[in-house]
Amino acid sequence: MIKQSYSWGIVVAQIVALVVLLGVSEYLVGRGYIKDLYLAAPSQVIKELLGLLHQGAFFKHLSATLIEFVLGYSAAIILGISLGLFMILTPKAEHFCSPFLSALMAIPKVTIIPLMTLWLGIGLTNKMVIVFIFSFFPIIFSTITGIKQTAENHLKVAHVFGASHAQIIRKVILPSAMPTIFAGMRLAAASGLVGALFGEMLASKEGLGNILVKATQLFDTAQVFAIIFIVTIISVLMIALIDLLEKKVFLKWKAS
Question: Global pTM?
Fold first, then answer.
């Protein structure tokens, strides 16, 4: 009971802090202490959000960003987990690939985007590859780390009971690695969405990044904050969906 009251107290404190922050922003901008060129009042952002939602073109831009993200992120999950599993099960492959993966991960991703535009144009393929590049490395390295953390005793027990190689992977290795893999997937979801926006901001005819660039060029600060708010909500929903998937799949395995 005390713990529940403590949790509710934290939630109330968070709400109060948010309301105070928004109220101070509204007051400072409304009274002219801070120009709306530099900071948009919450009321201006809400008005801009409603305006965007009433524009048919906005949903076209939103769907373009989501499609780019889903395709690139899904490819990163499939290849990242598969390659990570292969590298651990084939030590020679891990020794061979590790230096190259580390070197590729160290390359600033933003510097690659102009090359992607040169090679792939400004269409869907370009953005999908950019999302993949931003998402792939957290997933593969979290997969490798998670698999290496599999308890040796669990593997010995599986061998004693005569489990096949496929059964050991499916029943022991992957369930043990899943918490770390899902942690990498959460990080990759946020970075992948950032990658999609970067790609759209530099070279694109559609997408939320394209709207963001136009708003910045027009010094429409309220619209910039509105797009940032929308992207933040999308990111939170993506992570919540990953959390739900982990509970429904991984925790089910753990219970069994």
Answer: 0.84
Options 1.10.3720.10, 1.20.210.10, 1.50.40.10, 3.30.420.40; CATH of 39-255: 1.10.3720.10
Contact 76, 139 (CB under 8 A): yes
DSSP structural state of residue 40: -
How is the chain split into domains, by residue range? 1-34, 39-255
3-state SS string over 204-224? CCCCHHHHHHHHHHCCCHHHH
Residue 137 token pair? 């490395």
Which 8-state DSSP code applies to residue 41?
-
Of 23, 40, 68, nearest in space to 228 by CA: 40
Query: pLDDT tens for residues 241-254?
Result: 988 888 877 666 55
Q: What's the CA angle centered on 62, arms 57 and 65, to 5 degrees? A: 130
Q: Are 237 and 158 in contact (CB under 8 A)?
A: no
Instruction: Tell me the C-alpha distance between 187 and 104, whole Å.
Output: 18
Cβ neighbours, 10 Å, residue 248: 9
Determine the Cα–Cα distance for residues 55 and 186; give it in Å rounded to an integer: 31
Residues in Cβ contact with 109 at an 8 Å cutoff, skipping those fewer than 6 apart:
130, 133, 134, 195, 198
* pLDDT tens column, 106-124: 888 878 888 888 888 878 8
